[in-house]
Amino acid sequence: MSVTGSCEVCLTETVEHTCDRCGNLVCERHFDQTTGFCSECTTEMSGGPEPQEEPPADTDTDTHIHRF
Ligand SMILES: [Zn+2]
Ligand SMILES: [Zn+2]
């Protein structure tokens, strides 16, 4: 793995930060200075890629709606 100056996320040329978790080189836009992690690690640690779905409503008996 060669260390060159390109963001692991958007492949921009200007990178000035290194993720303290996965070690990826990221640009300023994809680096969270608060945590010191890249945007992917920050997103992964803040709940994951899957959004929370609303609880299934079991009120409609006349219309069949696909679950999930
Ligand atoms: Zn970037
Ligand atoms: Zn990272």
Question: Any overview of this molecule?
Answer:
The protein has 68 residues and is mostly loops. It has a domain of 47 residues. 10% of the residues lie in helices and 12% in strands. The chain has 1 helix and 4 strands. The chain has a two-stranded antiparallel sheet. Strands 3-4 form a two-stranded antiparallel sheet. The protein starts with 16 loop residues before the first strand and ends in a 23-residue tail after the last helix. The mean pLDDT is 83. The structure holds zinc ion (2 copies). The site of one zinc ion (ZN) has 8 residues, from loops.
> Outline, from the CA principal axes?
elongated
Bound molecules: zinc ion
Quaternary: single chain
* N/C terminus separation: 41 Å
Counting helices, strands and paired strands, the structural category is little secondary structure
